[in-house]
Request: fold
Amino acid sequence: MGVYAELFRFAAKAGSLEGYLYERAEVAPLENWVSNIIRMYGELPEDARSDIAADLAIVIERILKYGERTLAPELKSKLEGLLAEIKK
Reply:
């Protein structure tokens, strides 16, 4: 696995910020994470994207599940869009 894929996998897992959905009303850290992950994913080479797709999909699905009641519609839409892109 390439360096980009390893760095991205680490960022996706370490930065998922699931705790913010439970413990904090402020969603700015999660919004920042989503923006950064979308940007980083778009910059990855195609082979690196395929290396991390399954792990990233799991992280996003968990955020959508745990944040079902707390995610702002715009953020939820961004996450669903990224998930759809990853799974195609």
Remarks:
- The mean pLDDT is 77.
- The chain has five helices and no strands.
- The first helix runs from residue 3 to 14.
